[in-house]
């Protein structure tokens, strides 16, 4: 196996999705910390690797991938001892992809990134409409889980890793009412039982909460 390098920081949800996947696969890798808070993602050295200046970035023997969804599917295909996390079956794979695209375009971009980017760049006033968008996402997620325990069906897949990292981070801004969203709540409990969950998602999430608490934010009605 070649040398696998992950450029990341634990506070970032897409980085935690990659950590969950690498830990699930038990693949060794070198963690290269990129501190977004001190602008390490904007250095010429880092931009030479990832011109977007974002994390995560995976470097695998010269192959560079700069999107968490592309990374987690690639590592399962390449390093998985079986395909359970990202099935090779046409339909099952399409179901996983459907959720990954939903995470990338709706959940992450429309809610988390849109709320967090201004907060982390000195605009701590969050318009109420952005919080409403989070609750709309919770409704959609709850409906995904009506028919089966995981987002792409009966089995745990990388779609769950991608979502759980972002969704648990959204709780910082919009609390999850367990009575209203019981399926999401049960799904999170299920993921928390994974032996690598606390290390891969829990630690970074706690750090994220501490950072946001220290910065503070206000919802504008
Ligand atoms: N779609 C990308 C999103 C990556 C992304 O936006 N990462 C954020 C951290 S959560 C970042 O690097 N932000 C730095 C910046 O925008 O300058 C993925 O899933 O990997």
Automatic annotation (TrEMBL):
Gene Ontology MF terms: glutathione transferase activity
InterPro entries (UniProt xref): Glutathione-S-Trfase_C-like, Glutathione-S-Trfase_C_sf, Glutathione_S-Trfase, Glutathione_S-Trfase_N, GST_C, Thioredoxin-like_sf
Gene Ontology BP terms: glutathione metabolic process
Domain GST N-terminal: 2-83
Residues annotated as transmembrane: none
Entry superkingdom: Eukaryota
Domain GST C-terminal per the UniProt entry, residue ranges: 89-215
A Pfam short name: GST_C
Quaternary structure and partners: Homodimer.
Name listed for the protein in its UniProt record: Glutathione S-transferase 1-1
Record organism: Bactrocera dorsalis (Oriental fruit fly)
């Amino acid at each position: 196996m070649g040398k696998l390098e992950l450029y990341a920081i634990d506070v970032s949800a897409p980085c935690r999705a990659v950590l969950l996947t690498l830990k699930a696969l038990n693949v060794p890798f070198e963690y290269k910390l990129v501190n977004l808070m001190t602008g390490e993602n904007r250095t010429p050295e880092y931009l030479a690797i990832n011109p977007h200046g974002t994390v995560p970035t995976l470097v695998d023997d010269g192959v560079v991938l700069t999107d968490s969804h592309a990374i987690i599917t690639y590592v399962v295909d390449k390093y998985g001892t079986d395909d359970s996390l990202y099935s090779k079956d046409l339909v099952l794979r399409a179901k996983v992809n459907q959720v990954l695209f939903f995470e990338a375009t709706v959940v992450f971009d429309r809610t988390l990134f849109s709320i967090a980017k201004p907060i982390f760049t000195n605009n701590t006033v969050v318009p109420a409409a952005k919080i409403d968008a989070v609750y709309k996402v919770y409704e959609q997620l709850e409906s995904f889980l009506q028919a089966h325990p995981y987002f792409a069906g009966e089995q745990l897949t990388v779609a769950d890793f991608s979502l759980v990292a972002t969704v648990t981070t959204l709780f910082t801004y919009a609390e999850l009412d367990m009575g209203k969203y019981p399926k999401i709540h049960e799904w999170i409990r299920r993921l928390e039982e994974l032996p690598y969950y606390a290390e891969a998602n829990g630690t970074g999430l706690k750090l994220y909460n501490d950072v946001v608490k220290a910065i503070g934010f206000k919802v504008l009605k």
